[in-house]
Each structure stands twice: as C-alpha cells, then as structure tokens.
Design a protein that fits this description.
It is a single chain. This protein is an alpha+beta fold. It folds into three domains: 124 residues, no CATH class; 139 residues, Jelly Rolls, CATH 2.60.120; 152 residues, Jelly Rolls, CATH 2.60.120.230. The longest helix has 20 residues. The chain is globular. 36% of the residues are buried.
C-alpha cells in the first residue's frame, strides 16, 4: 500500500477511535459483533436506509456502495458508472508520464484521489473547458455534463465505492480515422526549460519544407516530454515578415528565444495561426474540406509553454502537419484586435486597483482579411463560414467573448469564456459552422481585473502586460 493511502487510512482509523472513545455505545449486539468478529460489518437497525458494507482484504480496503435487498449497489460505483467518465474526460491528461500531477487510470488511483477531485469538479475548474455553455455548442467538449458532474460528486460523497469489476466499460474507442501526416518539424536540439520558474515560454523558428504553395489540413503535436509540455501554439511566419522573428532568434544564445503573448516581435499581431495543441486534445484534423495556406519560404514559430516540475527535463517536441495541394474551402485563422492598442493610439489602459475594466473592438472580417493579406486577400465581399473561435488575454484577464453582429444587434455568439484562465486557452471548433455575411461585423470584448495591481497595464508582449485578442477560423468557397 502506498504511503499516501496508508496516511489517509491512518487518519480515518484515528478518527474512528476518537469517536468511539468519546461516544457511549448502546446496544450490546453491535459492540459484541464488532469485538468478536472484526471482519463482520455492523448494521444499524435503528435506521430506515439501506445497509452499508465494508470489507477489508489485507492492506487494501475495498469500499462498496450501499446495497439494496437484492444485493445490487444503490449508488454510483467506479466500475459501473464512473470509470467511463474519468477515462473520457480526465485520463487523457491524468495518466502516467503526462502533464497532470497524478494518474486516474484505475480504481486504486481514482479512489485515492477522489476527495481531492471534489473541489475542482464543484467549482468547474476540472476538467478544464473554458467556453461557456450558454453561448455556443462545441465539438470535442471536454467538460462534464451536469449529469456527469452530479454522478461523480455523488460517488465521491459515498466514499468512492469500487463496485464490481465485471461492470467495467470497454476501453475508450477513438473512432476517428488515422491521419496521414506528411510534414514533420521539430525542435532542432533538446531544450531544458529554466529552473525555478513556474512557467517558461519559448519559441523555436522552424523551416517550412514545402517548395510550393500547400494547404495545412491537419495539425498536432508529439510532445517530447509530456510531463512538462503544457500547451503549444504554432504560427505561420510568411517570408515578408521573417526579419523581425529571425532577429529575436539570433539575439538569444540558446535554442529558440523567449516569447509570451505570441511569437514575439512587432509583427506578432499579424502572425497567422497554424494550430494549437493541449494535453488531451482530440483529432488534429481541421474542419472537413478546409485548409490553411502556407507559402513556400515561410517558417513556423513553435511557441512552447513549459510547466517545469522541479526536475531538469529536456524536451524536443515535434509538429506534425497533413498537407494538400488544394482544398474545397480555403481557410484563414483571423486575429481580431484593435490595431491602435499596439501603438497606444488609443492605449488599452487598465488602471491599477480597478476590478472590472472593459475594452472592446468591432470590425467586419473583410477588413481584417485585407489588412493581413493585402493583395492575396480571399473571401472579401462573400459570405464566410466560421468553424472555430478563441480568445486570448494574459493573467489579469477575467472574461472575454466574440459575437457576430448584424445591423449593430447581436446575431450569433461565437465564444464566451466567462472565467478566463491563462493556463487553459485554445481555439474551439463549433458543433456546426456559423455563416457570417459580408455586412456583418464581429465584436470582441475583454474584461480585466487589476484590483491587485499597483500599476496600470496596457497592451504588450511581457508577463506584466496585457492583450485582448480574438481568433476566428473561417473558410470561403473560392480562393
């Protein structure tokens, strides 16, 4: 038995002894039975509820659920009710060698940590799923449904009974077809994150290998050291924007260069997203029939967010991309932000001591496309299909949303993150695409809490700066 579990059971035993020494026992049957046969469960006949049983085999106690008169468990059990939920929503990260601090792949692990899980499930911080349920419906939702949440909490409250192993569900089946990735880009040499910091952000410039224009249709990451890779974002740096990023890379003696809010440099807001990855991410395929154009001569800025665990661990993660020569609907991953915030005209000021500061920006997507792609703009003046969306702020962010407006009125909510957490961010695919007409606009709104700050904040790349940025993945029916 592990030391952690031994400690827990010792506390339980001490509590039980303390209770029995201070509370008189009435009823000879219960006290006699416990004294003469420690392995026999005592039944409280004075209650109307179902009897509960507890058996001990060696050093490994097994807790069972209250039973009915037929012998079947009344409440939820691990094997019958909980294992399938944990396997699907938790064990993709909570498994040996991955980013989560403990594993939840079997009953011994889940039972040991059950009480620790309850607060995070109650306040909905775990499993991490930032999008609010009232805004939109998303594919690959990692969050617990209300029914799943109530079931797991009821199981924990009942002391996490195991139940019958024969009730265990079959192993999770990923029915997504395998993806044939044809591009592999990796960190050129092992990199060990800085010691003594909770989070280390590092960008690596990688050469795009294709010598002709291609479309990325799927993207994923093979983390070299899963236990410290928190998330990864890949940005496309087109040939005419390379100078700023190459200067940052050359200025740092180690492999890569430090970066925080984006890939770094003055051109960072114009960097085009290729994809993002977090532990537990599902299929890396982009929406069917769509793809992001990558020009020959481009580079990929691979932004690594490392979460060191105290040991010097080197990482050499790899990007995998599936490409196609053509796609039915060329796609763009568009950043949404006020251009003036980046040059303080107007400044995106967040005063010190203020608990709720709001900044917003509204623009039509055609203008964004023309600004970013100039003579190579596509989809301008045509209906666009929005497939995915995300928002980005730093550590003082509190809430953010992207809403499509028609005639100045809210038309469709793309994404709302009601409780921003910088450590859990990404771009989220809709359950069904949303049409954005040429006359529609998109409103970005960010709320910040600087109540604990002693200095005002504004837009910037540093950890003590802030950002208000939206991302929308759209496709058009013609190049």
């Amino acid at each position: 038995m592990s030391r952690a579990r031994s400690f827990v059971f010792t506390l339980v035993a001490l509590t039980a002894c303390n209770d029995s020494s201070n509370t008189p026992t009435t009823g000879a049957d219960a006290s006699t039975s416990a004294a003469t046969d420690p392995g026999t469960a005592a039944t409280d006949a004075s209650t109307d509820g179902p009897a509960t049983t507890s058996t001990t085999t060696g050093d490994d106690p097994t807790t069972t659920s209250p039973t009915s008169t037929t012998g079947d468990p009344v409440g939820p059990t691990y094997y019958r009710d909980i294992k399938a939920i944990l396997d699907a929503k938790c064990a993709t990260c909570h498994r040996p060698g991955d980013i989560a601090p403990f594993s939840l792949t079997n009953y011994d692990e889940a039972g040991m940590f059950a009480k620790i899980l309850a607060p995070a499930i109650e306040n909905r911080t775990m499993p991490p799923w930032p999008p609010g349920a009232d805004c939109n419906q998303f594919a690959h939702d990692r969050g617990l449904t209300d029914a799943e949440r109530e079931l797991v909490l009821a199981w924990i409250a009942a002391d996490a009974p195991a139940g019958d192993p024969d009730d265990a569900p079959p192993p999770p089946d990923d029915d997504a077809p395998p993806i044939a990735y044809d591009v592999q880009l990796g960190i050129p040499e092992p990199f060990t994150p800085a010691e003594g910091v909770a989070d280390d952000y590092r960008c690596f410039l990688l050469d795009w290998p294709k010598d002709q224009e291609t479309y990325a249709t799927a993207f994923t990451i093979e983390p070299g050291a899963r236990e410290i890779v928190h998330h990864v974002i890949a940005f496309i740096i087109p040939p005419d924007e390379l100078a700023d990023f190459e200067a940052l890379d050359a200025a740092d003696p180690g492999p890569g260069y430090p970066c925080y809010g984006g890939p770094g440099g003055e051109a960072s807001p114009r960097a085009q997203w290729l994809g993002a990855w977090v532990p537990g991410a599902s299929s890396g395929a982009l929406p069917e029939g769509t793809g992001i154009r990558v020009k020959p001569g481009s580079k990929i800025a691979m932004q690594m967010h490392y979460h060191p665990n105290g040991a010097p661990i080197a990482d050499q993660s790899t990007i995998l991309v599936r490409t196609a020569e053509t796609v039915a609907r060329p796609a763009l991953l568009l950043p949404i932000a006020h251009p003036g915030w980046m040059v303080d005209a107007p400044p995106m000021t967040i005063p010190a001591g203020e608990a709720d500061v709001t900044h917003s920006f509204t623009i039509d997507l055609g203008s964004v496309i023309q600004y970013l792609y100039k003579d190579e703009a596509i989809g301008v003046g045509k209906p666009l299909l929005a497939h995915m969306a995300g928002v980005h702020m730093h550590t003082r962010g509190a809430r953010a949303s992207l809403v499509v407006q028609s005639g100045g009125n809210p038309e469709a909510c793309l994404i709302d993150v009601p409780r921003w957490d910088f450590n859990w961010q990404g771009i989220y695919e809709f359950a069904a695409p949303i049409t954005i007409e040429p006359t529609d606009s998109v409103r970005l709104e960010c709320h910040f809490d600087n109540s604990a700050g002693d200095a005002p904040l504004k837009w910037g790349e540093g950890t003590e700066d802030e950002m208000c940025l939206g991302m929308v993945y759209v496709s058009t029916d013609s190049p």
